[in-house]
Specification:
Structural class: alpha/beta
CATH architecture of the largest domain: 3-Layer(aba) Sandwich
Helix content: 40-55%
Radius of gyration: 21 Å
Bound molecules: NADPH dihydro-nicotinamide-adenine-dinucleotide phosphate
Number of domains: 3
Strand order of the largest sheet: 9-8-7-6-10-11-12
CATH topology of the largest domain: Rossmann fold
Order of helices and strands: HHHHHEEEHEHEHHEHEEHHEEHEHEHHHH
CATH superfamily of the largest domain: NAD(P)-binding Rossmann-like Domain
Largest sheet: 7 strands, mixed
Strand content: 15-25%
Number of strands: 12
Number of helices: 18
CATH class of the largest domain: Alpha Beta
Protein backbone atom coordinates (compact mmCIF):
# COMPACT_ATOMS: atom_id res chain seq x y z
CA UNK A 1 0.00 0.00 0.00
CA UNK A 2 1.45 3.35 -1.06
CA UNK A 3 -0.02 6.69 -0.01
CA UNK A 4 -0.27 9.26 -2.80
CA UNK A 5 -1.78 12.19 -0.92
CA UNK A 6 1.10 14.32 0.37
CA UNK A 7 -0.63 15.34 3.60
CA UNK A 8 -1.48 11.74 4.58
CA UNK A 9 1.93 10.53 3.43
CA UNK A 10 3.58 13.07 5.74
CA UNK A 11 1.40 12.05 8.68
CA UNK A 12 2.19 8.38 8.12
CA UNK A 13 5.93 8.88 7.68
CA UNK A 14 6.07 10.96 10.87
CA UNK A 15 4.28 8.18 12.73
CA UNK A 16 6.52 5.52 11.22
CA UNK A 17 9.59 7.41 12.40
CA UNK A 18 8.35 7.77 15.98
CA UNK A 19 6.76 4.31 16.27
CA UNK A 20 9.08 2.24 14.08
CA UNK A 21 8.82 -0.87 16.28
CA UNK A 22 4.99 -0.91 16.36
CA UNK A 23 4.29 -2.93 13.23
CA UNK A 24 0.67 -3.93 13.92
CA UNK A 25 -0.24 -0.34 14.79
CA UNK A 26 1.43 1.00 11.63
CA UNK A 27 -0.32 -1.67 9.54
CA UNK A 28 -3.74 -0.63 10.88
CA UNK A 29 -3.07 3.08 10.38
CA UNK A 30 -1.81 2.60 6.81
CA UNK A 31 -4.88 0.58 5.90
CA UNK A 32 -7.22 3.30 7.19
CA UNK A 33 -5.28 6.24 5.72
CA UNK A 34 -5.10 4.65 2.28
CA UNK A 35 -8.91 4.31 2.29
CA UNK A 36 -9.33 7.98 3.16
CA UNK A 37 -7.23 9.62 0.45
CA UNK A 38 -10.28 10.56 -1.62
CA UNK A 39 -11.96 12.09 1.44
CA UNK A 40 -8.92 14.28 2.07
CA UNK A 41 -8.74 15.32 -1.60
CA UNK A 42 -12.37 16.47 -1.38
CA UNK A 43 -11.91 18.20 2.01
CA UNK A 44 -8.58 20.04 2.12
CA UNK A 45 -9.67 21.84 5.32
CA UNK A 46 -8.95 18.59 7.23
CA UNK A 47 -5.26 19.36 6.95
CA UNK A 48 -5.64 22.80 8.57
CA UNK A 49 -7.59 21.18 11.42
CA UNK A 50 -4.74 18.68 11.92
CA UNK A 51 -7.35 15.91 11.95
CA UNK A 52 -5.02 13.07 11.02
CA UNK A 53 -2.09 14.09 13.26
CA UNK A 54 -4.60 14.04 16.14
CA UNK A 55 -6.37 10.88 15.02
CA UNK A 56 -3.22 8.71 15.01
CA UNK A 57 -2.06 9.94 18.43
CA UNK A 58 -3.90 8.38 21.40
CA UNK A 59 -5.46 10.83 23.85
CA UNK A 60 -3.82 8.79 26.62
CA UNK A 61 -1.67 5.65 26.83
CA UNK A 62 -1.22 3.93 30.17
CA UNK A 63 1.27 1.15 30.90
CA UNK A 64 1.58 -0.36 34.34
CA UNK A 65 3.08 -3.15 36.46
CA UNK A 66 0.82 -6.04 37.45
CA UNK A 67 2.40 -8.06 40.28
CA UNK A 68 0.58 -11.18 41.51
CA UNK A 69 1.31 -14.33 43.49
CA UNK A 70 0.96 -17.78 41.86
CA UNK A 71 -0.28 -20.93 43.61
CA UNK A 72 3.25 -21.93 44.62
CA UNK A 73 3.80 -18.60 46.40
CA UNK A 74 6.07 -17.10 43.71
CA UNK A 75 5.70 -13.45 42.78
CA UNK A 76 5.02 -12.94 39.06
CA UNK A 77 5.02 -9.65 37.19
CA UNK A 78 3.12 -8.84 33.99
CA UNK A 79 2.60 -5.70 31.96
CA UNK A 80 -0.78 -3.98 31.88
CA UNK A 81 -1.94 -1.54 29.20
CA UNK A 82 -4.87 0.74 28.45
CA UNK A 83 -5.02 3.00 25.45
CA UNK A 84 -7.68 5.73 25.49
CA UNK A 85 -7.52 6.56 21.82
CA UNK A 86 -10.34 8.87 20.86
CA UNK A 87 -13.37 10.16 22.79
CA UNK A 88 -14.85 12.47 20.12
CA UNK A 89 -18.15 10.57 19.88
CA UNK A 90 -18.45 9.09 23.38
CA UNK A 91 -16.61 7.58 26.37
CA UNK A 92 -13.65 5.34 25.46
CA UNK A 93 -14.88 1.81 24.84
CA UNK A 94 -13.05 -1.39 23.93
CA UNK A 95 -12.06 -4.75 25.32
CA UNK A 96 -9.22 -6.11 27.42
CA UNK A 97 -7.02 -8.85 25.94
CA UNK A 98 -4.98 -11.25 28.10
CA UNK A 99 -2.53 -13.08 25.85
CA UNK A 100 1.29 -13.49 25.79
CA UNK A 101 1.46 -11.68 22.41
CA UNK A 102 0.04 -8.46 23.89
CA UNK A 103 2.32 -5.41 23.69
CA UNK A 104 1.97 -1.66 23.08
CA UNK A 105 1.74 -2.11 19.31
CA UNK A 106 -1.06 -4.69 19.48
CA UNK A 107 -3.05 -2.62 21.98
CA UNK A 108 -2.66 0.53 19.87
CA UNK A 109 -3.72 -1.19 16.64
CA UNK A 110 -6.79 -2.56 18.38
CA UNK A 111 -7.61 0.80 19.99
CA UNK A 112 -7.21 2.62 16.67
CA UNK A 113 -9.51 0.20 14.84
CA UNK A 114 -12.02 0.48 17.66
CA UNK A 115 -12.54 4.21 16.95
CA UNK A 116 -14.07 3.50 13.53
CA UNK A 117 -15.86 0.32 14.56
CA UNK A 118 -17.62 2.05 17.46
CA UNK A 119 -18.52 4.98 15.23
CA UNK A 120 -20.07 2.59 12.67
CA UNK A 121 -22.44 1.14 15.30
CA UNK A 122 -24.17 4.53 15.49
CA UNK A 123 -23.90 4.42 19.30
CA UNK A 124 -22.08 7.02 21.43
CA UNK A 125 -18.78 5.24 22.05
CA UNK A 126 -15.21 6.42 21.56
CA UNK A 127 -12.29 4.06 20.93
CA UNK A 128 -10.08 2.36 23.51
CA UNK A 129 -8.46 -1.01 24.21
CA UNK A 130 -6.35 -2.65 26.89
CA UNK A 131 -4.90 -5.84 28.21
CA UNK A 132 -1.85 -7.65 29.44
CA UNK A 133 0.80 -10.13 28.32
CA UNK A 134 -0.56 -12.45 31.05
CA UNK A 135 -1.44 -15.96 29.76
CA UNK A 136 -4.62 -17.30 31.40
CA UNK A 137 -4.04 -20.78 29.89
CA UNK A 138 -3.25 -23.37 32.56
CA UNK A 139 -3.83 -20.97 35.49
CA UNK A 140 -6.10 -21.89 38.38
CA UNK A 141 -9.24 -19.85 39.10
CA UNK A 142 -7.51 -18.39 42.17
CA UNK A 143 -4.51 -17.30 40.12
CA UNK A 144 -6.83 -15.68 37.59
CA UNK A 145 -8.64 -13.88 40.41
CA UNK A 146 -5.41 -12.60 41.99
CA UNK A 147 -4.16 -11.40 38.62
CA UNK A 148 -7.44 -9.61 37.78
CA UNK A 149 -7.53 -7.93 41.19
CA UNK A 150 -3.97 -6.67 40.79
CA UNK A 151 -4.72 -5.47 37.23
CA UNK A 152 -7.72 -3.51 38.52
CA UNK A 153 -5.72 -2.04 41.42
CA UNK A 154 -4.16 0.27 38.83
CA UNK A 155 -6.78 0.38 36.06
CA UNK A 156 -9.63 1.58 38.31
CA UNK A 157 -8.29 5.14 38.55
CA UNK A 158 -8.47 5.58 34.75
CA UNK A 159 -11.92 4.15 33.98
CA UNK A 160 -15.55 4.97 34.81
CA UNK A 161 -19.04 4.56 33.39
CA UNK A 162 -18.82 7.98 31.68
CA UNK A 163 -15.07 7.94 31.02
CA UNK A 164 -13.84 4.60 29.79
CA UNK A 165 -15.76 1.31 29.79
CA UNK A 166 -13.64 -1.83 29.14
CA UNK A 167 -15.03 -5.25 28.12
CA UNK A 168 -13.65 -8.69 27.24
CA UNK A 169 -11.53 -9.84 24.29
CA UNK A 170 -9.14 -12.78 23.78
CA UNK A 171 -8.54 -14.45 27.16
CA UNK A 172 -11.06 -12.25 28.98
CA UNK A 173 -14.51 -13.75 29.33
CA UNK A 174 -17.26 -13.74 31.95
CA UNK A 175 -14.98 -15.17 34.66
CA UNK A 176 -12.33 -12.45 34.28
CA UNK A 177 -14.89 -9.63 33.90
CA UNK A 178 -16.50 -10.83 37.16
CA UNK A 179 -13.22 -10.64 39.10
CA UNK A 180 -12.36 -7.25 37.56
CA UNK A 181 -15.80 -5.85 38.37
CA UNK A 182 -15.68 -7.13 41.97
CA UNK A 183 -12.36 -5.41 42.56
CA UNK A 184 -13.52 -2.15 40.95
CA UNK A 185 -16.59 -2.13 43.19
CA UNK A 186 -14.45 -2.78 46.27
CA UNK A 187 -11.96 -0.01 45.43
CA UNK A 188 -14.50 2.67 44.50
CA UNK A 189 -17.51 1.69 46.61
CA UNK A 190 -19.74 2.16 43.55
CA UNK A 191 -21.93 -0.22 41.55
CA UNK A 192 -21.96 1.17 38.03
CA UNK A 193 -21.81 -0.06 34.43
CA UNK A 194 -18.03 0.42 34.34
CA UNK A 195 -17.43 -2.87 32.51
CA UNK A 196 -19.52 -4.70 29.92
CA UNK A 197 -19.67 -8.43 29.32
CA UNK A 198 -20.86 -8.86 32.92
CA UNK A 199 -22.75 -11.89 34.23
CA UNK A 200 -26.52 -11.80 33.97
CA UNK A 201 -27.03 -11.61 37.73
CA UNK A 202 -25.25 -8.24 38.02
CA UNK A 203 -26.19 -6.19 34.97
CA UNK A 204 -24.96 -8.18 31.95
CA UNK A 205 -26.73 -8.37 28.61
CA UNK A 206 -28.53 -11.60 27.80
CA UNK A 207 -27.10 -11.49 24.27
CA UNK A 208 -23.45 -10.52 24.90
CA UNK A 209 -22.05 -14.05 24.53
CA UNK A 210 -23.63 -14.50 21.10
CA UNK A 211 -23.37 -10.88 19.91
CA UNK A 212 -20.13 -10.84 17.89
CA UNK A 213 -20.53 -14.23 16.21
CA UNK A 214 -24.23 -13.81 15.46
CA UNK A 215 -23.61 -10.22 14.33
CA UNK A 216 -20.92 -11.46 11.95
CA UNK A 217 -23.40 -13.81 10.27
CA UNK A 218 -26.04 -11.05 10.00
CA UNK A 219 -23.41 -8.95 8.23
CA UNK A 220 -22.47 -11.89 5.97
CA UNK A 221 -26.12 -12.39 5.05
CA UNK A 222 -26.29 -8.74 3.90
CA UNK A 223 -23.06 -9.18 1.92
CA UNK A 224 -24.31 -12.31 0.21
CA UNK A 225 -27.76 -10.93 -0.53
CA UNK A 226 -26.63 -7.58 -1.92
CA UNK A 227 -23.34 -8.51 -3.56
CA UNK A 228 -23.93 -12.12 -4.64
CA UNK A 229 -27.77 -12.47 -4.69
CA UNK A 230 -27.55 -15.56 -2.49
CA UNK A 231 -27.50 -16.46 1.23
CA UNK A 232 -25.70 -18.66 3.74
CA UNK A 233 -28.15 -21.49 3.17
CA UNK A 234 -26.42 -24.57 1.76
CA UNK A 235 -22.93 -23.02 1.89
CA UNK A 236 -19.81 -24.70 3.26
CA UNK A 237 -18.17 -22.47 5.85
CA UNK A 238 -14.69 -22.52 7.41
CA UNK A 239 -14.33 -20.72 10.74
CA UNK A 240 -10.90 -20.24 12.31
CA UNK A 241 -10.58 -20.10 16.10
CA UNK A 242 -12.85 -21.83 18.59
CA UNK A 243 -13.32 -19.07 21.13
CA UNK A 244 -16.26 -16.82 21.80
CA UNK A 245 -16.53 -15.27 18.33
CA UNK A 246 -15.87 -18.48 16.40
CA UNK A 247 -18.32 -20.67 18.32
CA UNK A 248 -21.26 -18.27 17.96
CA UNK A 249 -20.45 -17.47 14.33
CA UNK A 250 -20.52 -21.22 13.66
CA UNK A 251 -23.81 -21.53 15.57
CA UNK A 252 -25.58 -18.75 13.65
CA UNK A 253 -24.18 -19.90 10.28
CA UNK A 254 -25.59 -23.36 11.03
CA UNK A 255 -28.96 -21.82 11.95
CA UNK A 256 -28.94 -20.04 8.58
CA UNK A 257 -28.62 -23.45 6.90
CA UNK A 258 -24.86 -23.46 6.24
CA UNK A 259 -22.48 -26.32 7.09
CA UNK A 260 -19.41 -25.44 9.18
CA UNK A 261 -16.75 -27.92 8.15
CA UNK A 262 -13.62 -26.72 10.00
CA UNK A 263 -12.56 -24.85 13.16
CA UNK A 264 -9.19 -24.32 14.89
CA UNK A 265 -7.17 -23.15 17.86
CA UNK A 266 -3.49 -22.24 18.11
CA UNK A 267 -2.55 -25.97 18.14
CA UNK A 268 -4.23 -26.88 14.84
CA UNK A 269 -7.54 -27.34 13.06
CA UNK A 270 -10.26 -29.97 12.84
CA UNK A 271 -12.08 -30.91 9.63
CA UNK A 272 -15.43 -32.66 9.70
CA UNK A 273 -16.96 -33.07 6.26
CA UNK A 274 -20.35 -33.86 7.86
CA UNK A 275 -20.44 -30.53 9.70
CA UNK A 276 -18.89 -29.69 13.08
CA UNK A 277 -21.00 -30.79 16.05
CA UNK A 278 -21.27 -27.55 17.96
CA UNK A 279 -22.55 -29.03 21.22
CA UNK A 280 -19.35 -31.03 21.38
CA UNK A 281 -17.15 -28.01 20.59
CA UNK A 282 -18.92 -26.00 23.29
CA UNK A 283 -18.42 -28.80 25.80
CA UNK A 284 -14.71 -29.08 24.95
CA UNK A 285 -13.94 -25.34 24.80
CA UNK A 286 -16.45 -23.69 27.16
CA UNK A 287 -16.95 -26.32 29.85
CA UNK A 288 -13.66 -28.24 29.88
CA UNK A 289 -11.37 -25.44 28.59
CA UNK A 290 -9.84 -28.12 26.36
CA UNK A 291 -8.32 -28.12 22.84
CA UNK A 292 -10.05 -28.61 19.46
CA UNK A 293 -8.04 -31.77 18.81
CA UNK A 294 -10.07 -33.47 21.59
CA UNK A 295 -12.94 -33.41 19.05
CA UNK A 296 -11.41 -36.21 16.95
CA UNK A 297 -11.38 -38.50 20.02
CA UNK A 298 -15.18 -38.31 19.97
CA UNK A 299 -15.88 -38.05 16.22
CA UNK A 300 -13.84 -40.72 14.49
CA UNK A 301 -14.57 -39.50 10.97
CA UNK A 302 -13.17 -36.02 11.72
CA UNK A 303 -9.51 -35.16 11.07
CA UNK A 304 -6.98 -33.07 13.00
CA UNK A 305 -4.05 -31.17 11.45
CA UNK A 306 -1.52 -29.51 13.76
CA UNK A 307 -0.82 -26.53 11.46
CA UNK A 308 -3.61 -24.11 12.25
CA UNK A 309 -2.81 -21.77 9.34
CA UNK A 310 -3.48 -24.56 6.83
CA UNK A 311 -7.19 -24.36 7.62
CA UNK A 312 -7.45 -21.94 4.65
CA UNK A 313 -6.45 -24.71 2.22
CA UNK A 314 -9.83 -26.37 2.78
CA UNK A 315 -12.21 -25.59 -0.12
CA UNK A 316 -15.22 -23.59 1.12
CA UNK A 317 -17.80 -21.03 -0.02
CA UNK A 318 -17.48 -18.69 2.95
CA UNK A 319 -14.39 -18.07 5.12
CA UNK A 320 -14.73 -16.49 8.55
CA UNK A 321 -11.37 -15.81 10.25
CA UNK A 322 -12.27 -15.51 13.95
CA UNK A 323 -9.00 -16.16 15.85
CA UNK A 324 -6.39 -13.41 15.82
CA UNK A 325 -4.50 -10.75 13.82
CA UNK A 326 -2.59 -11.68 10.64
CA UNK A 327 -3.70 -15.33 10.69
CA UNK A 328 -4.72 -15.24 7.00
CA UNK A 329 -1.82 -14.27 4.73
CA UNK A 330 -1.40 -13.90 0.96
CA UNK A 331 -0.80 -17.64 0.39
CA UNK A 332 -3.95 -18.43 2.34
CA UNK A 333 -5.92 -15.85 0.35
CA UNK A 334 -4.64 -17.34 -2.93
CA UNK A 335 -5.67 -20.82 -1.81
CA UNK A 336 -9.15 -19.64 -0.87
CA UNK A 337 -9.60 -17.79 -4.17
CA UNK A 338 -8.33 -20.77 -6.17
CA UNK A 339 -10.78 -23.04 -4.35
CA UNK A 340 -13.73 -20.81 -5.23
CA UNK A 341 -14.51 -18.88 -2.03
CA UNK A 342 -17.36 -16.38 -2.64
CA UNK A 343 -17.27 -14.35 0.58
CA UNK A 344 -14.75 -13.60 3.34
CA UNK A 345 -15.70 -11.73 6.52
CA UNK A 346 -13.50 -10.99 9.51
CA UNK A 347 -14.80 -12.04 12.93
CA UNK A 348 -11.39 -11.31 14.46
CA UNK A 349 -9.63 -7.94 14.39
CA UNK A 350 -7.31 -7.59 11.35
CA UNK A 351 -6.98 -11.37 10.79
CA UNK A 352 -6.10 -10.79 7.13
CA UNK A 353 -2.74 -9.31 6.25
CA UNK A 354 -2.83 -6.22 4.02
CA UNK A 355 -1.71 -8.34 1.04
CA UNK A 356 -4.45 -10.91 1.65
CA UNK A 357 -7.15 -8.22 1.90
CA UNK A 358 -5.89 -6.66 -1.35
CA UNK A 359 -5.98 -10.06 -3.08
CA UNK A 360 -9.67 -10.52 -2.17
CA UNK A 361 -10.53 -7.01 -3.36
CA UNK A 362 -8.64 -7.47 -6.63
CA UNK A 363 -10.37 -10.80 -7.25
CA UNK A 364 -13.71 -9.00 -6.60
CA UNK A 365 -14.54 -11.37 -3.76
CA UNK A 366 -16.83 -9.67 -1.24
CA UNK A 367 -14.61 -8.93 1.78
CA UNK A 368 -16.04 -7.71 5.10
CA UNK A 369 -13.40 -5.98 7.26
CA UNK A 370 -13.41 -6.67 11.01
CA UNK A 371 -14.25 -3.16 12.03
CA UNK A 372 -17.61 -3.58 10.31
CA UNK A 373 -18.24 -7.33 10.35
CA UNK A 374 -17.41 -7.96 14.03
CA UNK A 375 -19.02 -4.81 15.46
CA UNK A 376 -21.94 -6.78 16.91
CA UNK A 377 -20.06 -7.34 20.16
CA UNK A 378 -19.34 -3.74 20.93
CA UNK A 379 -22.81 -2.74 19.74
CA UNK A 380 -24.24 -5.14 22.31
CA UNK A 381 -21.89 -3.62 24.91
CA UNK A 382 -23.26 -0.19 24.01
CA UNK A 383 -26.76 -1.51 24.63
CA UNK A 384 -25.57 -3.04 27.95
CA UNK A 385 -24.32 0.45 28.96
CA UNK A 386 -27.73 1.92 28.16
CA UNK A 387 -29.48 -0.79 30.17
CA UNK A 388 -27.17 -0.22 33.14
CA UNK A 389 -27.84 3.55 33.06
CA UNK A 390 -31.58 2.88 32.99
CA UNK A 391 -31.30 0.01 35.53
CA UNK A 392 -33.31 -2.04 33.05
CA UNK A 393 -32.96 -5.35 31.20
CA UNK A 394 -34.05 -6.07 27.66
CA UNK A 395 -34.75 -9.71 26.85
CA UNK A 396 -32.68 -11.85 24.45
CA UNK A 397 -35.00 -11.36 21.47
CA UNK A 398 -35.06 -7.57 21.91
CA UNK A 399 -31.27 -7.29 21.90
CA UNK A 400 -30.94 -9.80 19.06
CA UNK A 401 -33.36 -7.74 16.93
CA UNK A 402 -31.45 -4.52 17.67
CA UNK A 403 -28.13 -6.13 16.74
CA UNK A 404 -29.61 -7.42 13.47
CA UNK A 405 -30.72 -3.89 12.65
CA UNK A 406 -27.35 -2.40 13.58
CA UNK A 407 -25.42 -4.95 11.48
CA UNK A 408 -27.63 -4.26 8.46
CA UNK A 409 -27.08 -0.52 8.93
CA UNK A 410 -23.32 -1.04 9.20
CA UNK A 411 -23.34 -2.96 5.92
CA UNK A 412 -25.56 -0.35 4.24
CA UNK A 413 -23.53 2.72 5.28
CA UNK A 414 -20.29 1.02 4.20
CA UNK A 415 -21.80 -0.09 0.90
CA UNK A 416 -23.28 3.36 0.18
CA UNK A 417 -19.96 5.05 0.99
CA UNK A 418 -18.17 2.63 -1.36
CA UNK A 419 -20.52 3.72 -4.14
CA UNK A 420 -20.16 7.40 -3.29
CA UNK A 421 -16.38 7.12 -3.63
CA UNK A 422 -16.51 5.20 -6.93
CA UNK A 423 -15.51 1.78 -5.55
CA UNK A 424 -18.82 -0.03 -5.32
CA UNK A 425 -18.62 -3.11 -3.11
CA UNK A 426 -15.23 -2.21 -1.56
CA UNK A 427 -16.35 -2.52 2.06
CA UNK A 428 -12.87 -1.76 3.41
CA UNK A 429 -12.95 1.67 1.85
CA UNK A 430 -16.67 2.19 2.52
CA UNK A 431 -16.51 1.22 6.20
CA UNK A 432 -13.40 3.30 6.84
CA UNK A 433 -14.99 6.35 5.21
CA UNK A 434 -18.34 5.97 7.01
CA UNK A 435 -16.70 5.38 10.41
CA UNK A 436 -14.27 8.25 9.92
CA UNK A 437 -16.72 10.95 8.79
CA UNK A 438 -18.69 10.94 12.04
CA UNK A 439 -15.56 11.01 14.23
CA UNK A 440 -14.04 13.77 12.10
CA UNK A 441 -17.19 15.88 12.30
CA UNK A 442 -17.29 15.55 16.11
CA UNK A 443 -13.58 16.44 16.36
CA UNK A 444 -14.08 19.59 14.30
CA UNK A 445 -17.05 20.70 16.43
CA UNK A 446 -15.04 20.20 19.63
CA UNK A 447 -12.06 22.36 18.61
CA UNK A 448 -8.38 21.58 19.05
CA UNK A 449 -8.34 19.32 22.11
P1 LIG B 1 -11.20 -16.14 22.66
O1 LIG B 1 -10.10 -16.00 23.63
O2 LIG B 1 -12.53 -16.57 23.13
O3 LIG B 1 -10.77 -17.13 21.47
C1 LIG B 1 -9.67 -16.86 20.68
C2 LIG B 1 -9.48 -18.00 19.70
O4 LIG B 1 -8.45 -17.65 18.79
C3 LIG B 1 -9.05 -19.29 20.36
O5 LIG B 1 -9.50 -20.38 19.63
C4 LIG B 1 -7.52 -19.17 20.29
O6 LIG B 1 -6.85 -20.41 20.34
C5 LIG B 1 -7.32 -18.52 18.96
N1 LIG B 1 -6.08 -17.72 18.98
C6 LIG B 1 -5.79 -16.68 19.78
N2 LIG B 1 -4.56 -16.21 19.56
C7 LIG B 1 -4.05 -17.01 18.61
C8 LIG B 1 -2.81 -17.03 17.93
N3 LIG B 1 -1.82 -16.15 18.21
N4 LIG B 1 -2.64 -17.98 16.99
C9 LIG B 1 -3.63 -18.87 16.70
N5 LIG B 1 -4.83 -18.90 17.31
C10 LIG B 1 -5.03 -17.98 18.23
O7 LIG B 1 -11.29 -14.72 21.91
P2 LIG B 1 -12.49 -14.10 21.10
O8 LIG B 1 -13.23 -15.16 20.38
O9 LIG B 1 -13.23 -13.20 22.01
O10 LIG B 1 -11.71 -13.15 20.07
C11 LIG B 1 -11.25 -13.62 18.80
C12 LIG B 1 -10.97 -12.44 17.90
O11 LIG B 1 -12.17 -11.66 17.73
C13 LIG B 1 -9.93 -11.44 18.40
O12 LIG B 1 -9.26 -10.88 17.29
C14 LIG B 1 -10.77 -10.36 19.06
O13 LIG B 1 -10.10 -9.12 19.15
C15 LIG B 1 -11.92 -10.30 18.09
N6 LIG B 1 -13.15 -9.73 18.61
C16 LIG B 1 -13.77 -10.26 19.70
C17 LIG B 1 -14.96 -9.73 20.15
C18 LIG B 1 -15.72 -10.36 21.26
O14 LIG B 1 -16.85 -9.91 21.49
N7 LIG B 1 -15.21 -11.37 21.95
C19 LIG B 1 -15.54 -8.53 19.53
C20 LIG B 1 -14.87 -8.10 18.33
C21 LIG B 1 -13.71 -8.67 17.92
P3 LIG B 1 -6.08 -20.84 21.68
O15 LIG B 1 -7.14 -21.20 22.65
O16 LIG B 1 -5.23 -21.96 21.26
O17 LIG B 1 -5.28 -19.62 22.10
Amino acid sequence: MVLKNTYLKGVYEGLEERNSNEKEFLQAVLEVLSSLEAVVEKNPQLENAGIFERLVEPERFIQFRVPWVDDTGHVRVNRGFRVEFNSAVGPFKGGLRFHPTVNASVIKFLGFEQIFKNSLTGLAMGGGKGGSDFDPKGKSDLEIMRFCQSFMNELYRHIGENTDVPAGDIGVGAREIGFLFGQYKKLTNTFTGVLTGKGLSYGGSLFRTQATGYGLCYYVESMLQVLKQTSLEGKNVVVSGSGNVAIYAAEKATQFGAKVIAMSDSNGYIYDKDGIKLDLIKEIKEEKRGRVKDYVDEVKTAKFNNKFKEIWNIPCDVALPCATQNELDLDAAKALIKNGVICVAEGANMPSTAEAADAFLEAKIPFGPGKAANAGGVACSGLEMSQNSMRYNWNFQEVDARIQGIMQDIFNVGYEASKMYGREGDLVLGSNVAGFLKVCDAMIYQGIV
